[in-house]
Recover the amino acids of this structure.
């Protein structure tokens, strides 16, 4: 049974990655309906050797679709999710618009894929950095009680979208023989720079990006009281988010135990052999599905603490791959609920 | 009274920065003796409009010098420091070779400049990241008892020397339309990447760079038992080291108190106005003397914790500027000890 599915925001970085991953993973669907703004409509994208036209999004765009992936910013996700649900589709929202709602599961399939259940028609996909480091935290949190998480992220510019990535390329070129120009609005350039500010600031001095990590880590791990703190920075890398993680437990959980837990958990690749100069890097993660984890070592300040480092492709596990994995669970539920038709 | 001083390693990134800063600050010296390897000897460098020849380093190179700045790697610093001291010079060592020795003061002048005393003939200059974040920690550690420090650094490639910086430039250019090449030895490229490994690894899983931060923070702050942990990473930036700092105290020390402490402390520039998009960045710090500090906010996991972000020019406060500031203290002691000669 091939499902009819749709991608809203199909021409963006994440939309295109989603289409590619649907193809790579042999998702049980016909060519997806590709939806975008009027401006992008008329373009075509390739899927299984076919050229698929991008359509403008209208009130009837979702009719007949079983699953819709929303790869757009919050306002558009808020506007179109009810329309798609009303049309009968199950919605996987890659924006942050619905992540904090109690009745919307926030899913990393390897951790809490069981939240994708019959009758659930809206599922949120987590923040791109959070999806990666929470995957490395999950097996540890099953082995011991997690009591505190502190992270510093080093995030690539693709996380800010295609326009920011173009701006990075231009800035890097201009910065080869001069000074990279400021971004729009006089903001400091991403090129040749470190910018410790992602998203707007909240009254407590944290950015929206940092607070997403706090709230989403708690929700995905189902630890609503877990103390989490975060610093999020942008670095001049195209693809690949890195996170330095400091985690504390109710007992010593050393690097050997951590490595054994990571080896046994799906979606992770252990890259942790300092003697051979093996550790996660942004470039090593880019283009791949696994979340790379390494640099495990005891926190020097706390016998119950562990330090480690995570790198992942923010367009894949941080966004499109995770969303397609969620859609695969939805598709499996739909296949299981199909009435068995007796052959004539 | 003009002193005779020398710079060993004069043609390196830090050596040249040291020469420039001596000139900018009007250091009371004649043209410094510029010492380097045989390979670099014969070149000339500019000082106060003069062209100064770079000399090869020999056993008699230090004769007649009052102060010698060592801007070389550890083996050369270990080899030449005794020769320079035996020739009667006070040595300021920018390498890490002598930093851990009990009888060698490790000095950031704004914090512990009083360790530069008559009779002290060898003074160590701290690690480039440590010098910056310890300057921001110092006024807080005077206001409350510091009980834990955890840092993640985002360090520029100039910290790895001129050859690494050339390699970064080449890698960034090659990476504009392809993949940046591996570094020598098959190590992951710095260009377009995040590399969580600076220096060799120690048996505890930490790198030498990380352990320098631990030991040097304790020594400079004169808190030998202070719990410190660190993750050090390299990012594709030319100049400007950034550090995300998480500090804990024996009482709540909030962002307002921290900002007031930083405003009153020399060498720091407070850049902390999120509403106006003002926070420290690598590019904003590069080329300047002050250590930029901002993003102060309460640690979300601990009422006694504070998070903040530091950026500094690693060639200046992290190296050459701090060393020249030490040399200025030495020069002041020498001037004060000069016998007053009665005019004829």
């Amino acid at each position: 049974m091939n499902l009819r599915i749709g991608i809203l925001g199909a021409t963006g970085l994440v939309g295109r990655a989603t289409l590619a991953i649907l193809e790579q993973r042999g998702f049980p669907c016909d060519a997806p309906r590709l939806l975008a703004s009027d401006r992008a409509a008329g373009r075509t994208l390739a899927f299984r050797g076919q050229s698929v036209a991008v359509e403008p999004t209208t009130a009837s765009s979702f009719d007949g679709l079983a699953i819709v992936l929303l790869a757009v910013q919050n306002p558009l996700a808020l506007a179109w999710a009810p329309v798609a649900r009303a049309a009968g589709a199950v919605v996987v929202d890659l924006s942050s618009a619905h992540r904090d709602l109690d009745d919307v599961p926030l899913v990393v399939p390897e951790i809490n894929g069981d939240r994708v259940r019959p009758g659930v028609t809206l599922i949120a996909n987590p923040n791109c950095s959070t999806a990666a480091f929470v995957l490395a935290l999950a097996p540890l949190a099953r082995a011991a009680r997690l009591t505190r998480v502190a992270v510093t992220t080093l995030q690539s510019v693709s996380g800010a979208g295609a326009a920011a990535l173009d701006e990075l390329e231009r800035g890097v070129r201009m910065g080869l023989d001069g000074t990279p120009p400021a971004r729009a609005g006089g903001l400091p350039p991403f090129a040749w720079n470190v910018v410790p500010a992602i998203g707007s600031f909240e009254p407590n001095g944290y950015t929206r990006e940092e607070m997403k990590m706090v709230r989403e880590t708690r929700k995905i791990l189902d630890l609503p009281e877990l103390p989490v703190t975060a610093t999020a920075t942008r670095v001049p890398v195209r693809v690949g988010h890195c996170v330095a993680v400091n985690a504390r437990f109710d007992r010593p959980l050393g690097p050997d135990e951590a490595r054994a837990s990571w080896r046994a958990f799906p979606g992770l690749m252990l890259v942790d052999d300092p003697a051979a100069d093996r550790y996660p890097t942004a470039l090593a993660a880019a283009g791949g599905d696994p979340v790379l984890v390494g640099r495990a070592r005891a926190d020097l300040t706390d016998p119950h603490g562990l330090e480690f480092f995570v790198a992942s492709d923010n367009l894949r596990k941080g966004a499109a791959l995770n969303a397609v994995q969620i859609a695969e669970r939805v598709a499996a539920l739909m296949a299981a609920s199909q009435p068995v038709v007796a052959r004539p």
